Amino acid sequence: MAGNGKLWLSDLSNASDRSKSEMKEPLEELRLCCTSWRFAAETNNLSPWRTIPPECAGYVEEYMTGRGYRYDLERVSKEARVFANSVKLGDDGRDIWIFDVDETLLSNLPYYALRGYGLEVFNPAEFDKWVEEGSAPAISSSLELYGEVLKLGFKVFFLSGRGERHRNVTVDNLIKVGFKYWDKLILRSSEDGEKHATEYKSEKRDEMVKEGYRIVANSGDQWSDLLGSSVAIRSFKLPNPMYYVP
Amino acid sequence: MAGNGKLWLSDLSNASDRSKSEMKEPLEELRLCCTSWRFAAETNNLSPWRTIPPECAGYVEEYMTGRGYRYDLERVSKEARVFANSVKLGDDGRDIWIFDVDETLLSNLPYYALRGYGLEVFNPAEFDKWVEEGSAPAISSSLELYGEVLKLGFKVFFLSGRGERHRNVTVDNLIKVGFKYWDKLILRSSEDGEKHATEYKSEKRDEMVKEGYRIVANSGDQWSDLLGSSVAIRSFKLPNPMYYVP
Fold it and tell me: Do B39 and A42 make contact, defined as CB atoms within 8 angstroms?
């Protein structure tokens, strides 16, 4: 990792003519260091970051495209479903489950796969083009949770950092991949401007509470989806080692 | 993992007469599943739990005694030191850094090593005996952070779930392993009784804020050290896959 004072990275770069068995140890060291970085990211221990550590590019790619990411998603979905089924809902229709959209309901993996899984600095114009295609696939474990939550009688609110100008394409994309119903789809208006996500989403949750809703649960891949004011009784942090939204 | 509907566990139990190479895949599957469990635990996605999953006993032991736990600790400590050095302290001596004690400053690994690293249900009487020995070693990466935080001029508060009756032995243990100074050592009084840690620690933080302190940072191995009211500007979650404190 950059600046952690360990020498494994230079060890690795000098290792091209080593035998496969001699390579094993530095690769294991790299795996452990990148796992520590990923843990620090997932537990919100890192300062704001713009790209993944270059030396972890291979690690993150393997994680995102292999079983690691999928198993982590499935585990969160399962825990959330267990919780959902344990909740005794009021008969006033005021119990809500909030879902973030990107990397929570919809996957932008096809976009990030072409950009090193977080290795490149985020390009808003390029990302807008991708959003406007409306072709993001569903995260299937979230689709499963969403179905269960609806069936149990929760009100379902989608709270996204996407702008109002992307409402139509977002609606179409969500419906196309199976998220066919919601009680509210909240997008950033011009008034929300450049607010940090934590502030914007907290304000929106404050409004829900003022309107008499009980925020029972909240699912999101960013801590800025989950922390701040009017936090849910249970928050579910989905994995995302590719980018950080403050 | 218990109840996740996958068959890898029964695969494993039938694998005793397989060749080493045939064993590799189920072991990799087990590693991935236990990593997902650990992520879910560290990101606070699990419902309250009393013991680690039995099938992950070997995984947790390897993590705790190998490089994994140490690297994770070092990464958190490093991130916290970067943050500490970035803070512009007021000149009124009111900027504080809170540290939890067990698994944050002091390690109970010698105790848990004899009890399957979280495989056995917590035994308060047995754990009290261990605490009363006063021989818990320091977590060295936390000692490093603590030294830096003191040097920078933060006030240092230790906020622990240990009871007042263990004050003397805790003081002796802390000093013996290098934590020689603090501004407050807050322990559970009889009034705090059986409160959940989140409630007890939130109340103590509320008091700090009322007294005019600014809670700049908080280091703890449990989410119940960090969440609730009067949360710190930055919270640092240390790894601990061995036990859960509500």
Answer: yes
DSSP A56: G
Domain that holds residue B115: 55-237
User: Across all residues in chain B, what is the average pLDDT?
Assistant: 92
Cβ burial of A156 (10 Å; 0-12, 13-18, 19+) is: middle
Q: How many CB atoms lie within 10 A of CB B19?
A: 8
Whether residues A100 and A209 fall in one domain: yes
> What confidence tens digit (pLDDT) does each residue in B158-183 have?
999 999 999 999 999 999 999 999 99
Interface contact B71-A32, CB threshold 8 A = yes
B113 with B202, same domain: the answer is yes
Name the phi and psi angles at A99, rounded to 5: -120, 130
Token pair for B181: 């100074």
Which residues of A touch chain B, with CB atoms under 8 Å apart? 1, 4, 29, 32-33, 35-37, 39-40, 42-47, 67-68, 71-72, 74-76, 78-80, 82-83, 86, 235-237, 239
**Residue written as tokens 């190479």?**
B21
Q: What would the pLDDT profile of B81-115 be if each residue is shown by its tens digit?
A: 999 999 999 999 999 999 999 999 999 999 999 99
Domain harbouring A124, CATH code: 3.40.50.1000
Domain co-membership, A95 together with A214: yes
Q: Examine the domain organization and report whether B35 and B136 are in the same domain.
A: no
User: Which candidate from A39, A72, A82 shows the least CB-CB separation from B72?
Assistant: A39
Q: Are residues A75 and B47, on separate chains, in Cβ contact within 8 Å?
A: no
CB contact (8 A) between residue B43 and residue A46: no
Q: What pLDDT was estimated at residue B194?
A: 86
- Closest alpha carbon within chain B to A45: B236
B144-181 burial, b at 16+ Cβ within 10 Å, e below that, comes to: bbbebbbeeebbbbbbbbbeeebeebbbebbeebebee
**B90 and B117 assigned to the same domain:** yes
Tell which residue, B104, B98, B88, has the closest CA to residue B136.
B104
Q: Is a pLDDT exceeding 50 seen at residue A13?
A: no
* Residues A200, A182 contacting (CB under 8 angstroms): no
State pLDDT tens for residues B12-56.
Answer: 444 444 555 666 788 999 999 999 999 999 999 999 999 999 999
A38 membership: H or E segment, kind and range: helix A20-42
Inter-residue contact B170 to B131 (CB < 8 Å): yes
- Total length of chain B: 246
What is the C-alpha separation between B142 and B144, in angstroms, rounded? 5
